[in-house]
Amino acid sequence: MRATVSRSVLVGMIAALSLRMWAEGGAAPAPAPATANREAVSVRLPGAAFAAMQTINPEHIRWHVRYLSHDLLEGRGTGQRGGDIAAEYMATQFAEYGLKPAGDNGSYLQKVPLVGITTLPETQFSLVTKQGAATNLRPLDDYVAYDQTQQPQSDVDAEIVYVGYGIEAPEYNWDDYKGVDVRGKVLLMLVNEPPSDDPKFFKGNALTYYGRWTYKYEEAARKGAVGVILVHREDMASYPWEVVRNSNSGEKSYLKLEASVLKVAAWVQWEVAKKLAAVSGMDLDKMLADARTREFRPVSLGSKLKAHMVSKVRNFESNNVLAVLPGSDRKLKDEAVMYTAHYDHLGVRPDMPGDNIYNGAADNATGCGILLELARAFSVAKERPGRSVIFAAVTAEEQGLLGSEYLGKHPPLPAGKIALDLNYDDVQPLGAPEEVEVSGAERTTFYPWVQATAKEFRLAIRPDAHPEAGHFYRSDHFSLARVGIPSFSINEGMKFKGHDEAWGLAQDRDYVERHYHQPSDEYHPEMDFVGDAAMARFGFALGWEAASFTRLIGWQKGDEFEAARVKSQ
What pLDDT is attached to residue 192? Predict the structure, then answer.
């Protein structure tokens, strides 16, 4: 009797079964007929891929998260014992799944040369008015600062020049510098970028890279400034001062020097900047208003920054962890689809009383758990996609996307041969999602398949819940995008089964305010990893599809990363 069951009936039975299995985590696409056109907008997986995807299990992700966020790993600090243990754990799992090493010298590890900088208590940081009065700022409470020169000591005694947002963006007809010579100066600038609802002007309310602190430091250094003081205000930065303080206390890592850098890379609280403006005969609120016009020109405050930066400098290596599942197609196997997640977090803060371990359960043990479960699922598939599949657990994300930056500059395959990067970062274990966020996917030629996959999984695509926060530029996919690889992150939206949208937004707000980059980001047994598994299945389907295309994916015409893609090929 079973021998007479038609293929169409069998496919229907499997699909019906899958819908029941994923009732709590989003439906899954049915397997494709053997004659499916891989170039059509379709996400019906081959039977072997479908069966492998079925094995993705939320409890597997839970086990990884529990281990990686345990106190024994000491917050997985970059270049610290716990971070090295996490890297070895990821490598061991990849080896157990039978994946091939893709790191240095036939290993799973890609060495990333780094320099650790710890700003020492001997550092002096003073604002000096034109009358000569000095205000000594308190570290962590008033300001945070690092010396990027990777020297034990640096001295700065320089005029402070206010440069608005510190942005030069010809495509938006915006220039805060106006050709003013800022060599040897300390630049005071605002976080974020000029506010707008016009999608053609700094992409409306979505933050572009121009609004990121990394761009502001880089641009100031290119122009010869010796220092930058970023003015933090919570509503403009989209996170409180505690995030700035916790992310910039203790050791901070940098890649070995490759470009111009700053002697002082600093942040100050809004109230500190307000006092500086007042003693300089200016009003910070008016300065903010002035900066929001194209007519703005740099203004000297007449005050100086006098800083004696004293740093502990530590040269060390951390590791990206790289594994590959070779492709099955003779012509395509030298190309790849890549999955990424960062395994590092903030480590331990010895100077803090009480719980001082930044366990990073959500950020980003969850992404690592998903990455490992994806690797396992691909490894058990009875057949392989045409392209190879690379799995990369990267280091030093919390230090400024350093591991992924190094990976982008030293990929296991040329960037022009990597079809797509799918990244996972901070996927909250909140239950079954009814939405998915794929911000940046719409910028790629792959977006129609993303839309079709979301529909098959019964997931609504939710626009970035906080576009003003610039999440696209704050996770590791951005480093790959900069070298031209079509890249985006996959995450849940704000609507979960059994709850309304307000509940999801409240959970997100509570996490950002109380747990993000805090010691309280810990594993709890009651966490529900059904949603993490749903995001893994969604990414599995996308990756398999991308690995089966006969042509490479690209960026949409006119996108800021299109030129890098063309250059890489």
Answer: 93
User: For the residues of 159-192, what is the DSSP string, one character each?
Assistant: EEEE-TT--EEGGGTEESSTT---TT-EEEEESS
Q: How far apart, in whole angstroms, are the C-alpha atoms of residue 407 and residue 414?
A: 11
Q: Report the chain's C-alpha Rg in angstroms.
A: 24
| Residue-wise DSSP of 535-559 | HHHHHHHHHHHHTT-SS---BPTT-
Residue 468: domain span: 52-114+318-568
Q: Are residues 110 and 122 in the same domain?
A: no
Measured in whole angstroms, how far is the alpha carbon of residue 248 from the centre of its chain?
17
What CATH number should be reported for the domain holding residue 280?
3.50.30.30
- Nearest-angstrom CA–CA distance, 539 and 489: 10
Positions of E strands within 163-298: 168-169, 174-175, 186-190, 227-232, 251-255, 264-269
Buried b (16+ CB within 10 A) or exposed e, 445-466: bbbebbbbbbebbebebbebbb
Q: Is 535 part of any domain?
A: yes
Q: For residue 361, with 0-12 CB atoms within 10 Å meaning exposed, 13-18 middle and 19 or more buried, which class applies? A: buried
279, 313, 347: which is the final residue of a domain?
313
Number of H helices, E strands in the chain: 16, 22
Residue pair 203/464 in contact by the 8 Å Cβ criterion: no
The answer to whether the beta carbons of residues 123 and 308 sit under 8 Å apart is: yes
Task: Show the low-confidence residues of the chain (pLDDT under 50).
Answer: 1-24, 26, 33-38
- DSSP class of 259: S
- State residue 474's pLDDT score: 87
Listing DSSP states for 25-38 in one string gives T---PPBPPTT--T
Same domain assignment for residues 353 and 456 = yes
- DSSP states of 394-413 as a string? ES-STTTSHHHHHHHHS-SS
Residue 370: give its domain's CATH number.
3.40.630.10
DSSP 429: -
Closest CA to 164 of 304, 289, 264, 278: 289
What is the number of residues in the chain?
Answer: 569
Chain segment 123-177, per-residue pLDDT in tens = 999 999 988 889 999 999 999 999 999 999 999 999 999 999 999 999 899 999 9
Q: Which amino acid is at 235?
A: D
Rounded to whole angstroms, the Cα distance separating 535 from 56 reads 10
